[in-house]
Amino acid sequence: MNPFYSLLCLIFLLPVGVYSQNLIANPGFETGSDNAFNNWTKLNGADYLTVTTVEAEVHSGDRALHVSSPGFPGEQWRVQLISDPVPTTVGNNYTFTIWAKAAADGANIRFSTQPNALYGPDTPITVDEWTQLSWTFTANETMTQIALDLGQTNVTFFLDDAEMVAPDNPCVDEFDVPEDQQPIAAGKGKFLGSIYSPAQRQDHEHYFNQVTPENAGKWGSVEREEGVYDFSEIDEARAYAASNGFPFRYHVLLWGNQQPTWLRPMTNEEKVTKIRAWFQAVADHYDGSSDARATLEYLEVVNEFINDPPNGIDNSPYADNSNDANSGDYVDALKSLNGELGTTPGEYDWIVNAYKLAREYFPCEETKLVINEYNVLTNYQGVTDKYLEVVDLLMADDLIDVLGFQGHSFSTRKYGGESFAEHTAFLRGNVDRLAATGLPLQVTELDIDGNVDDTYTVTDNVAVRDSFQKAEYERIFGMLWNHPAVTGITLWGYRTGHWRSAQLAYLIDPCTDRERPALAEYLNDSIRNAEAPPLNDFAYACATTGLADRTAPLTTPLTLFPNPASGRVTVQLGMVLPDAEWLLHDQLGREVARRSFAAGQRSVEVDLDRLGLRPGIYYLTVRSGARQSGQRLLVR
After folding, report:
1. Sequence-distant (≥ 6) Cβ neighbours of residue 396 within 8 angstroms
2. What's 148-185 look like in SS3?
3. Beta pairing partners, 607
4. Which of 280, 230, 532, 250 is nearest to 404 (CA)?
5. Spatial contact of 336 and 269, defined as CB atoms under 8 Å apart
6. What confidence score (pLDDT) does residue 541 get?
7. Do residues 441 and 431 lie in contact, with contact meaning Cβ atoms separated by under 8 Å?
8. What pTM does this model have?
9. Are 450 and 465 in contact (CB under 8 A)?
């Protein structure tokens, strides 16, 4: 997910009513002894944060905050002041303001929140004139702290009179899903999933049948402190997926964002050691010993390798990671493995090495390796061309199993003057390019804004924006869902607290406590009640567990009927075979049932309901001696 779009909304406000009193305690820094400020905590760089009582340096009252940092470009957090927690309503917008004045040119401030971090831009501070700076964000926690990141430059500046107001009548999502609501994609042969996070986990199992953690699996989330791995948050998502039988995609091992800040200063050799330790820690943790530690079905190895690689440089026209401590800056470290791993040097050799390492730690019989990127649907800035170039390199060594691509609103909307039908065909053309590889596709992160009309102009007309969001779901989701190469779609949230809440991309309206039409009328009605969409047969880079030890086919035909099946399926052989048995595996190769044919028997009836199988794709195999044959079975 592109962090730029996830950090802030500076313009659009939700219709949440009138705002009231200031939530920030001690907003003018008036109380506190010496250089301390009541209700504020100096997290970093305390020596650079002092009190001033000089009249020209105070906006109002008697005291203000004096900031004098030596300058930490790209590491603003090295000088940081954070407010006491204040109550916030998830999904509603809050505007934080503060008055600022700089002593010279070049000063700036970055606003952010804790604990579930949101970030604003580097906001410049006017010289010798008090200016009120403003930042609007969408709350994603019930208690929020405002963090002032103040260490970017070595220019002295002054802050005073902070304010954050709450809506008098906030919209609160209290929608109760009917108990009999079942996952929309049940029996469709494809999954429809959503992210799993504190804001998105409520009633997830009623609508969705696939799970991706939003932030909990990122390296910077799991190993904040070097050598200390905390999987507790992602384990909750993993246990939930395993207990419900939902496929789980781990997001993500390597990325140019949300990586450990302690990693960047290390040598390449040290970084390689840490990368290997990180891969090993994830592999060891998900060892199958419990639902919370179930082996991983899908694993995103590298995310946004074009738009936001961990390279620590200015990657124009894509990300500039030159001053981003969270980028990890380990592309060169991965390149240093070329000799050891036998990789041909090149622009993307570091990606090939990342996947070679992943194959070492995650057996392909158990875990399918995924790649993820955005703007692939549009080929913006040549992303699709580069993406396929990388895929070719990975396929040459059987290192990739699934092609993942994002479908966020900002990349699927129609920007040009073509018709909506023409734009849909254009998007479909790029999906076709990916499908031509022969690999299965997954839409890893999908959302569609719900605050605009059919010209993408922001509107307050609820009926208009609901209607257009539904129309865009029908156009974009429909094209993707019905593409035979697409095996599943993951929504990047559906309730308030959605990362694009400011754009109303959620599907439950918190102000009416109802499903919006895109969910109620399209996904939960049209898609649910439609026939299963077309789906190709796929062969992974290596055989899945339980299907890899015999290659010679049976000497007699194998027939399954009916197929698709619901309730029961008959397995029939053309002739009786000695010591024959049938086995049923899910699409990741995990054995879910095994029975022997009775002596002289060439036909058996399998009770699918008694096996407790969920709808989806399975593989039924019959073995006899050193031979086996199998067929794909769709259970509805």
Report:
1. none
2. EECCCCCCCEEEEEEEEEEECCCCCCCCCCCCCCCCCC
3. 568
4. 250
5. yes
6. 65
7. yes
8. 0.76
9. yes
Among candidate residues 445, 474, 531, 605, the one labeled active-site is 445
- Phi, psi of 57, deg, nearest 5: -105, 5
Q: Are 505 and 466 contacting, i.e. CB atoms less than 8 angstroms apart?
A: no
Taking phi over 0 as left and psi of -120 to 50 as alpha, with beta for the rest, 467 belongs to alpha
Domains of the chain: 17-167 (2.60.120.260), 191-529 (3.20.20.80), 558-635 (2.60.40.10)
**What are the structure tokens assigned to 191, written together?**
């999954």
Could you tell me if 408 and 5 are in contact, meaning their C-beta atoms sit under 8 angstroms apart?
A: yes
Active site residue 445: yes
Looking at residue 394, what DSSP letter applies?
H
Here the tokens at position 74 are: 């790209």
Residues of the chain predicted below pLDDT 70: 1-20, 541-551, 587-589
* Full DSSP string of 262-304: TTTTS-HHHHHHHHHHHHHHHHHH-SSSSGGGPPPSEEEEEE-
Please write the tens of the pLDDT for every residue from 176-215.
899 889 999 998 989 999 999 988 999 999 999 999 999 9
% of the chain at pLDDT higher than 90:
76
DSSP sequence for 198-245: TTT-TTHHHH-S-EEESSTTSHHHH-SBTTB---HHHHHHHHHHHHHT
Using alpha carbons only, give the angle 307, 308, 312 rounded to the nearest 5 degrees: 135
At 162, which amino acid appears? Answer: A
10 Å CB burial of residue 116 (0-12, 13-18, 19+) is middle
Q: Are 299 and 355 in contact (CB under 8 A)?
A: no
Distance of CA 139 to the CA centre of its chain: 18
Given this model, what pLDDT does residue 38 score?
Answer: 97
Name every residue whose Cβ is closer than 8 Å to that of residue 112 and which is 6 or more positions away in sequence: 118, 119, 120, 146, 147, 149
Distance CA 494, CA 195 (A): 9
Give residue 61's region: left, alpha or beta (phi > 0; psi -120 to 50).
left
Question: How many residues comprise the chain?
Answer: 636
Q: Is the separation of the CB atoms in 314 and 382 below 8 Å?
A: no
Peptide bond into 124 cis (omega under 30): no
- The Cα 216–Cα 447 span in angstroms is 20
User: What is the C-alpha to C-alpha distance for residues 266 and 268, in angstroms, rounded to an integer?
Assistant: 7
Token output for 255? 């990325």
Nearest Cα neighbor of 57 from 105, 100, 104 is 100
Mean pLDDT of the chain: 91
